[in-house]
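Hi support team,

I'm opening this ticket because the web form for multi-chain structure prediction keeps timing out on my end. I have pasted the exact lines I submitted so you can reproduce it. The total is 820 residues across two entries, so I didn't expect it to be a heavy job. Is there a limit I'm missing, or should I split the entries? Thanks in advance, R.K.
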Amino acid sequence: MDLALALQLDAMDPGLNPANLPYFAARSLLRLTLAFGLSLGFALAYGIAAAMSRRASHVLLPVLDVLQSVPVLGFLPVVFIFILTRVPGDSGKELASVILIFTAMVWAMTFAVISGINQIPNDIKEASKAYGVTRSRYLRQVVLPAVYPELIWGCILAWGGAWYFIPVEEYVSFGTTTNVHLPGLGFFIAQAAAQSRLDSAILGLVAMVLVIVAINRIVWRPLVARTEKYRYESTGGQRGFHARHGKLRSSLLKYEGRLATPIVSFFKYEKMNLSSFLETVPRVHVPPKVRERLSRIFLVTRVIVIIGFLGLMVLVIFFLENSPIPTIQAALNQIQSFQPIPNCTDCLSGFPLLAYSTASSLFRLLAAYLIALGWTLLAGIAIAMRQRLAKILIPLFDIGQSIPATALFPIVTLLILSRVASPMGTQLASIILLLTGMQWYLLFNIVGAIHNIPNDISESVSAYGVSGKRFIREILIPASFPAIISGSMQAWGGGWNATIVSEYIVTGAQQVQQVAGLGAVLVNASNAGSAGTVVIATAIVIMTSTILIINRLVWHRLLKRADRYKFES
Amino acid sequence: MTEEPVVRIDNVSKSFLSEDKLVSVLQNVSFNVGKEFLCIVGPSGCGKSTLLRMIDGLDRPSQGSVYFHGKPVEGPTPMMGMVFQTFALIPWKTVLENVEMGLAWVRITDEDRLKRSEKFIQDVGLDGFEASYPKELSGGMKQRVGIARALALEPEVLLMDEPFSSLDALTAEGLRKEVLEIWSNPQFSTNSVIMVTHNVQEAVSMADTVIVMSPRPGKVIDNVRIEMDRPRDQRDPRFYDYVDRIISKIS
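Hello R.K., no limit was hit. The queue was backed up. Here is the completed structure from your submission:
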């Protein structure tokens, strides 16, 4: 029905007219709402089944774990190729887009359902049993209310993650043959940037932020307000804190919920390995020794499971495309001969290319991380030291983080590439794009930690005259250490996710600017059609393994050390 | 002319904005604290903790003033030491470091600071736990650290905010006795103790003066001198009379 209009818009100057913005906003929202409906149904069914049936949980939880740990943006080309070959035309593109948004939304929500059910106190479970509450009544009167608060936060997280995808999905090209252009706000921004129309691009961005803020105000805020009612009382602590910092606190909670790319759930639940899955299952006793062994082999197991899963996907694609299914030798040859730039004699190819790309991505991530850590730590300290500054900065940060980083990409690229020549300009643009995908996790974790310093502690510190540099060095920085670590894990997750959109940048008139990196490899491989699927799978495996290894070697160790910097509740 | 008390609370009121409504916590509170053990008793939410924080200069009255030796209190001073309900120990600092941190005001050499901290850790019976972290201590021991930190300042006024209410009954009873012992020690440099509590028995067993406050907004509704020698016998009929008098005022 709307396709005719969409095609018409595509044919003429595709809607850089601001009058089209409401229409584009409606189209983006429609896609999001459809995907949200699917996600909600799936999350409730899957989550309740996994949390309430012991037998089902043995299968459902590990499967969920694998599904949510595959970087979703890496999925993107695979899913598009898969669906576009089945359902041609615009309806196929819409379908693919909705399914991808669904994959971005669903994991956070499913885990929210499970964690909500897990928060039901044992007393309540036992009381329900003791008083003979029927299963359906238990579901309605105990489970669903317990799920509600977590699920609302999960939904907010899911929407944040989904907005991150909107600009990517509405404007992608695979090679020269497949262009996915779907009418929507992301498309508007990308089109404007492609035509070097900075004014229109910013207009589109403003429209997107307005829509996001409006949805938060109209839909989520009233729902969040009701969550308190359904929460089981947790530790008291922080007496008086709520009264004084009530407003600030609720806005911080909001960030915690909204800071989102899909990969966050991956890091949030990464510790939920097989052994702790078993713990969530009632009445199953896992001996500590078994548990320890499970957690030790887990890294390898995970990588193997992901390799298996992606291998299966590759096979499915080959099968569906009726291509001959490659032997392992043929697959290795495909990787070996993969070289993204045609007719380039001294370019790397195959495994050296993958290794160099990984190192290159890592280097840029590190640069962006250090910049992010520096400024966010300073901002956190500034906010802690000057309450008045917090009142100005927090709303600014609020707006800043509500902008999906991917929507900023075309604008940042446009601004930088017109000033700094390639390749320096491309490198710089790429690092800044990564920064936009990383910084908010650190900022809100740090600011949140500083605001969660118990009232008695901050009062005792000032009662005993600890102030200035000493206060920063001995209190503020140690107190935010655990938050810095968990924020860093999330930031690196967001950063890896952003590599896929930040290393291969299409500027005006289909001009491609790229830097070496795993993200660029993924995009290039997807341009190669089905022949590239083996390379895509390999690149995803390398990326996921790198994430897991860095987690294990760096963050988990630091996280253990962070325990002593936590306040007792 | 009467002698200026150690702490004088002069017509203090406190209110704050909560969700755009002005909530009054304290209303026209006045009393004097001499060289004595004074307890402020009242139901929760009557602003007694807020009052204690205003005496220490951690909070400001909306109206009225708090005077320390005739001078308005403008911020925390090393002349007062504070003991917190939740102990308020820094988890990443050892017992010794926590006590030393309390001496940030005092300009002495590091060696003297160490000696002084060690002495007070000993005085509260934590000998041998200097290198432990708060996490490794029981509630009672944590509060001993809190008390050592306050005492190490050798403050003129010791402020205690429900110091025993996070402890189990037996531990609290023991620690109460010890605090009274320290207080009765002539070497002890502190002139006044101001303690906030909602436990009427605790107040009557410890204080020279009990200030009784009404529910929010907190007002002083009674000022009771406890004329009993220490140690006080809880089975003494006079003890019951005091307790009954105070409880009947509050409820």
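A quick check on our side: Residues 7-250 of chain B form a domain with the Rossmann fold fold (CATH 3.40.50.300). Let us know if the file doesn't open in your viewer.
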